[in-house]
Write a structure and sequence with these properties.
61% of the residues lie in helices and 0% in strands. The protein is mainly α. It has one domain (3-74): Non-ribosomal Peptide Synthetase Peptidyl Carrier Protein, Chain A. It comes from Actinophytocola xanthii.
């Protein structure tokens, strides 16, 4: 699986949705702070790098989380 597909899979699982679009907003889909932490932890466990939670609270979109994850993996 690619990093993007891993993130999308966890996004869908945590939020209980079947599809994920980059414009989707975490909190608009029923996410809350505890789910945000769970999502980040799942992603970190699979990717093996620390992922910032900030994009979920500032922008809230899947696209922002994907971009932040790409940055974190490039370090």
């Amino acid at each position: 699986m690619t990093p993007e597909s891993i993130i999308r899979t966890h996004w869908c699982a945590v939020l209980g949705v079947s599809e994920a679009d980059p414009e989707d907003r975490f909190f608009e889909l029923g996410g809350h702070s505890l789910l945000a932490i769970e999502l980040i932890q799942r992603i970190e466990d699979d990717l093996g790098v620390p992922i910032p939670v900030d994009p979920l609270f500032t922008d809230g979109s899947l696209g922002a989380l994907l971009a932040a994850s790409e940055e974190a993996m490039a370090r």
